[in-house]
Design the sequence.
């Protein structure tokens, strides 16, 4: 299993699919920073406001779409190039292959996110109005600020894992990457739009991992641990359900 995971990580590092994440996450840093530099408002120079802008700009579109496309593309190539049959004929079980894919994609994506998130936090601090930052440190302790930013990062990791799981589920169900990507974009767009749409329908995404797309609203809320759990629990439950669906779909696949 360990060797299979190493193989999958090596394929990601050598493949073109990784460029989707690298370019998207780079843009996730640049887009809010450009907006901050061009703004003349003092509020936009405040540290927490800069962090909020990072998530607000990216969480509803670029973040989930880039992760989904990367994940589906990574698996879809196996079916497109018909290299999947060589794995099926190997000594590894289909479940082991599924878990190796699941872990490798998550490891790469999470590492890229952590680098992006930490780098942005450093840049946001260095470019923020130091007077505003001092005010923040006086009203809330430095440890509370770091804890809150850490909790947001941890919750985002669960969100990433859920997005990846949903993406690979679609990839294993539909096999054709173009179809899977299109369906992913449609479902993701629809679910995220429901948050700002009809109130009666907006409750639907709250039972799904898409609810975590709103976690950045907790940036100014401290010691509110139960709210983080409200975002994490749908992710965890969805991950297990989607992994089962992925396993069932992959088990039924018969290569020609």
Sequence:
């Amino acid at each position: 299993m360990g060797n299979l995971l190493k193989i999958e990580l090596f394929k990601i590092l050598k493949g073109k699919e990784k460029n989707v994440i690298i370019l998207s996450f780079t843009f996730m840093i640049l887009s809010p920073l450009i907006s901050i530099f061009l703004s003349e408002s003092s509020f936009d120079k405040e540290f927490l406001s800069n962090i909020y802008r990072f998530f607000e700009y990216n969480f509803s579109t670029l973040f989930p779409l880039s992760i989904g496309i990367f994940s589906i593309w990574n698996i879809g190539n196996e079916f497109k190039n018909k290299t999947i049959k060589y794995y099926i004929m190997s000594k590894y079980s289909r479940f082991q292959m599924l878990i190796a894919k699941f872990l490798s994609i998550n490891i790469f994506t999470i590492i890229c996110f952590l680098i992006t998130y930490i780098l942005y936090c450093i840049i946001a601090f260095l470019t923020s109005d130091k007077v505003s930052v001092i005010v923040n440190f006086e009203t809330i302790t430095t440890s509370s600020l770091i804890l809150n930013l850490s909790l947001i990062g941890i919750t985002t990791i669960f969100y990433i894992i859920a997005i990846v799981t949903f993406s690979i589920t679609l990839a294993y169900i539909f096999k054709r990457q173009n179809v899977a990507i299109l369906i992913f974009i449609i479902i993701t767009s629809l679910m995220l739009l429901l948050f700002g749409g009809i109130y009666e329908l907006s409750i639907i995404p709250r039972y799904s991992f898409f609810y975590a797309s709103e976690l950045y609203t907790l940036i100014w809320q401290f010691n509110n641990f139960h709210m983080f759990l409200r975002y994490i629990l749908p992710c965890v439950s969805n991950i297990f359900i989607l992994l089962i669906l992925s396993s069932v779909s992959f088990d039924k696949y018969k290569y020609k």
In short: Confidence is low (pLDDT under 50) at residues 131-137. Residues 2-248 form one domain. The longest helix spans residues 94-127. The CA atoms of residues 78 and 86 lie 10 Å apart.
